[in-house]
Amino acid sequence: MLKSLIAAVSLVGAVLAGTAPAWSQAQSPSADTTPLRIGIAPHTSARVIIEQYQPVRLAVEKAMAQPAEIVTAPDFTAFARRALDQEYDIAVTTGHQAQLLRQDAGYKPLLTYKADFKSVVVAAAGSPYADAASLRGTTVLGLNPSSLVTLWGQHWLKDSKVEAQLRYVSAADSVAQIVLAGDASAGFMSLANLQKLAPDVQAKLKVIAESQPMAGRVYLVNARLADRWPALHEALMAFAETAEGKAYFNTNALGGYREVGGEELAAMEPLADEVRHVLKAVK
């Protein structure tokens, strides 16, 4: 009842503003007004995520003739738990969590982005930190124990036989600020998030290590919407060809959509299993 009331109020406000959402056009009396929940893994601040994914939300609303909302979580561990608890109709998260949701919660992979997803280790441009060995005994920043960039970074340190104190922060821009303030030697983030930082901030950072391409942000559909998978897939691929879609991909350096295969996600199973261990540890 409350969800229906909220949706109705949102529609009234949109009509008054002259911007009625696509799902309201030619809406039948029996149309579902319960918003579809599009869960986006918290790779940056909630404000930025909600703003960034508005074009996707509008495309989904139009295709499904149903309102949609962008939601996230405080951190990657909370996001994984909420997704496993079936809180999202559509989930967008990195490959290791996509594998977890596919195997443990019945989500069906939809598509991913064409742009390579890479993890990077950044340090202040003028700092003495240039490789893993130089980080020994220092404080290094990660996003969350369940995030792909952090898990990759931890393995990078371990493979280099380097012990460092790991500290977790909420977002990539926070990593940059703390590193530049001198309160940490280096930090892990995705290459995409590094490229989204302000140019003057990027200029003050240097990349001291970079991963191989990995399965990046993957769209998945909850099993309860399995019958709507084809329509969602078709709608998003069509969105990619529109002016709005091309602007979205260009702005965020995502390159467009591509298919994502089971083998590609299965390769992430070792890291998916690490998320399972994290979830058990924080119960």
TrEMBL record:
<keyword id="KW-0732">Signal</keyword>
<dbReference type="Pfam" id="PF12974">
    <property type="entry name" value="Phosphonate-bd"/>
</dbReference>
<feature type="signal peptide">
    <location>
        <begin position="1"/>
        <end position="22"/>
    </location>
</feature>
<protein>
    <submittedName>
        <fullName>Phosphonate transport system substrate-binding protein</fullName>
    </submittedName>
</protein>
